[in-house]
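Chapter review: from sequence to fold.
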Amino acid sequence: MTKLFIARVRGTSGDRPLVTVRAAAEGEARLFLEAAYPDDEVVEVAEPGDWVSTSDTGSKAGDVREHPGVAWQAPSTGLS
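The token string follows.
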């Protein structure tokens, strides 16, 4: 079963829009992202917490999607 991860990916011209990836675990998510963006830096990968998207985030392992107009924001931990 796959989980949804969000990622901050930085290319030569700056940060890409928010990227989502489906994977079984964070390590696998990083591998999929590194394969999809071989010339870019995968800055951060996290489970999205309460993030809700109206965009298609895929359903199969390895589905990597960019979400134009959505910037990276670290997930809240729910702690105050």
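Two observations follow directly from the output. The mean pLDDT is 88. The helical segments are 26-36.
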